[in-house]
């Protein structure tokens, strides 16, 4: 269970990083 919780936290951080990357890519494509 502890491992699952750690995996969840790591996945959450990865998701946040992916969202930030998507935002940057969208901004670059939009030219904003």
From TrEMBL:
Domain of life of the source: Eukaryota
Protein name listed in UniProt: Uncharacterized protein
């Amino acid at each position: 269970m502890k491992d699952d919780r750690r995996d969840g936290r790591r996945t959450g951080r990865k998701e946040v990083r992916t969202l930030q990357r998507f935002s940057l890519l969208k901004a670059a494509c939009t030219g904003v």
